[in-house]
Design brief:
Elements: H1 16-36, E1 39-40, E2 46-48, H2 49-55, H3 61-66, E3 69-71, E4 77-80, H4 85-94, E5 103-112, E6 124-133, H5 138-154, E7 161-166, H6 173-184, H7 193-201, H8 212-217, H9 230-245, E8 251-252, E9 264-271, E10 280-286, H10 290-293, E11 301-307, H11 308-315, E12 326-330, H12 336-348, E13 353-355, H13 362-371, E14 376-380, H14 382-387, E15 389-394, E16 400-404, H15 408-413
Parallel strand pairs: 1-5, 7-8, 12-13, 12-14
Antiparallel strand pairs: 2-4, 3-4, 5-6, 6-11, 7-9, 9-10, 10-11, 14-15, 15-16
Helix pairs in contact: 1-5, 1-11, 5-9
The structure holds histidyl-adenosine monophosphate.
Length: about 425
C-alpha cells in the first residue's frame, strides 16, 4: 500500500543506516572548530522576517523568492531561517558581545529555502557554518578558509577547489556599480524583469541571477577586482599571500558573485567538480557592514556556510556503519531473561549491544547478528545458565570460548577492536 503521507518535496528523512555518515562529518567539523577556538552557537529556527529582509538583503533571490514566511497567532511575520549569518549577528548584538573583542562562532543548522529541488539542492538543507565577528584584518579571512581546508582534510574529501575574490567596500562599490551599469545599459531589454529592477539599485546582483538570458548578457562584464580601492586591494593581496604561505591551494577568481547583499571585500567559494550544476560546497565572505545594517555598532565580520548534504554527496557511500560490539543471543525461552540482563550490564559497561525482542529462533538470531556485523555474539543457553557463563563467539574468526558472565565486558574490551586494544 502506498504511504498516505510523504516528506515534503525537497526534504528528506535521514535514517539510522545513513545518519552515522552525517554524525561523522558533524563530529569532524566540531573537532576542527574546537581546535580553531570557535564555540557553538544555536539560534532559533525562525526569526522576525525583517531580520532577513534587511540582513540578507531586499534584492536577493533568497528574500524575493525563497523564504518560508508565516504569520504567527499574534500577527507577527516570522521566517524559517534561510541562512545563518543574520541570526548570528543578531544574537551577537542582542547579547552585547561586541564589548568582548573578537567572537568566533560555529553552527550546524537546518536552513530553509523555497527552491526548485534537484540533486544537491533542497528546500531544507543543513549548513555547517562559522562566523568570526570583530576582526578587520586579513589574517582572520585566511583563518576561516584554512579551517574549512583542514576540515575537508579531516573527512578525507579530495578534489575541492577554493576560489577567492574581493568585491570591494562601500567606498569603491559605487565605481564598480557604475562600470556594471555602463556595461549592461545596451543590454537592458534582454535582462529578466528582476535584473532590470536591480540595474539601478544593485547591478552587482545581475551577475548572480540564474536566468539563462542574464547569464549570456553578463559575458565580458567588468571584473570586481579591477575596480576595488587601494585599501581593499591591499587587504585582498594580504589574504592571498597568507593562503600561499599556509600552503592552502586557491585560485583568484573575480567572477565569484555571492547571492547575498552584505558582502564586502573578501568573498570565496569552494567547488567540487563531481557535484555538477550545484557544485558549490561552501561559500562565504566578509560582511563588514552587516552589524550596522542590523542596528548595531560598525563591526567587521567574516564567515562561511557549507551544505552538509553536498559534502555527503561528494564523499559517496563507501564504508558501512559500525555494527554493535555484542549481539546477545538466547538459546531458549528461559534464557531470554538472563540474556536481557546481560545486555543491560554490558551496555552499562560501555559496550553497544543488540538483542532479540520478539523470541526468534537461535538460528535467526545468529543470522541477525551477522547482518548487523556484530563483533561478537554472547550466547546464553541451558548449560551457560547452569554454569553462570556465556559462550562468546568472535564473529570475524568464528572462535568460541566460555567466559564467566561477569567478565564478558572485560573480555570484549581486551580484544582487537575493543576499547583496550
Ligand atoms: P550560501 O552560499 O547561500 O551562503 O550557502 C552556503 C552553502 O550552503 C552553499 O555553498 C551550499 O553548499 C549550501 N546550500 C545553499 N543552498 C542550498 C540548497 N538549497 N540545498 C543544499 N545546499 C545548499 C550563505 O548561506 C551564507 N550565510 C554563508 C556565509 C556565512 N557567509 C558569511 N558567513
Amino acid at each position: 500500500m502506498a504511504p498516505k503521507y510523504k516528506a515534503p518535496r525537497g526534504t528528506q528523512d535521514v535514517l539510522p543506516e545513513v545518519s552515522w555518515r552525517w554524525q561523522r562529518v558533524e563530529a569532524a567539523f566540531r573537532e576542527i572548530c574546537r581546535r580553531y577556538g570557535y564555540g557553538e552557537i544555536r539560534t532559533p529556527v525562525f526569526e522576525d522576517t525583517e531580520l532577513f529582509v534587511h540582513g540578507t538583503g531586499e534584492g536577493t533571490e533568497i528574500v524575493t523568492r525563497q523564504m518560508y514566511s508565516f504569520e504567527d497567532r499574534g500577527g507577527r511575520s516570522l521566517t524559517l531561517r534561510p541562512e545563518g549569518t543574520p541570526s548570528v549577528v543578531r544574537a551577537f548584538l542582542e547579547h552585547g558581545l561586541h564589548s568582548r573583542g573578537v567572537q568566533k562562532f560555529y553552527y550546524i543548522a537546518p536552513i530553509f529555502r523555497y527552491e526548485r529541488p534537484q540533486a544537491g539542492r533542497y528546500r531544507q538543507h543543513t549548513q555547517l557554518g562559522v562566523e568570526a565577528i570583530g576582526a578587520p584584518g586579513p589574517d582572520i579571512d585566511a583563518e576561516v578558509i584554512a579551517l574549512f581546508h583542514d576540515f575537508l582534510t579531516e573527512i578525507s574529501l579530495e578534489g575541492a577547489v577554493t576560489h577567492i575574490s574581493s568585491i570591494g567596500c562601500r567606498n569603491c562599490r559605487p565605481a564598480l556599480s557604475d562600470a556594471l551599469r555602463a556595461f549592461f545599459k545596451p543590454k537592458l531589454d534582454d535582462l529578466c524583469e528582476f535584473c532590470q529592477a536591480r540595474y539601478e539599485a544593485n547591478p552587482l546582483r545581475i551577475l548572480d541571477c540564474g536566468v539563462p538570458a542574464d547569464v549570456e548578457a553578463r559575458v565580458g562584464a567588468p571584473s570586481a577586482l579591477d575596480h576595488i580601492c587601494d585599501e581593499c586591494r591591499a587587504h585582498f593581496d594580504a589574504v592571498v599571500a597568507l593562503l600561499t604561505e599556509l600552503d592552502i591551494p586557491h585560485e583568484v577568481d573575480p567572477t565569484i558573485v555571492r547571492g547575498l547583499d552584505y558582502y564586502t571585500r573578501t568573498t570565496f567559494e569552494v567547488v567540487h567538480p563531481s557535484l555538477g550544476a550545484q557544485d558549490v560546497l561552501m561559500g562565504g565572505g566578509r560582511y563588514d557592514g552587516l552589524a550596522e545594517v542590523l542596528g548595531g555598532p560598525a563591526t567587521p565580520g567574516i564567515g562561511f556556510g557549507s551544505g552538509l548534504e553536498r559534502l555527503l554527496l561528494v564523499l559517496g557511500e563507501e564504508g558501512s556503519s559500525p555494527g554493535p560490539d555484542v549481539y546477545v543471543a538466547a538459546a531458549s525461552e528461559e534464557a531470554r531473561g538472563p540474556a536481557f540482563k546481560l545486555a543491560l550490564e554490558l551496555r552499562r559497561a560501555g559496550l553497544s549491544v543488540e538483542i532479540d525482542y520478539i523470541g526468534r529462533a537461535l538460528r535467526t538470531q545468529m543470522r541477525e547478528a551477522n547482518r548487523l556485523r556484530a563483533r561478537a555474539v554472547a550466547l546464553i543457553g541451558e548449560d551457560e545458565m547452569a554454569a553462570g557463563t556465556v559462550t562468546l563467539r568472535d564473529m570475524a574468526t568464528g572462535e568460541q570460548e566460555s567466559v564467566p558472565a561477569g567478565q564478558v565486558a572485560e573480555r570484549m574490551k581486551s580484544r582487537p577492536g575493543g576499547d583496550g586494544a
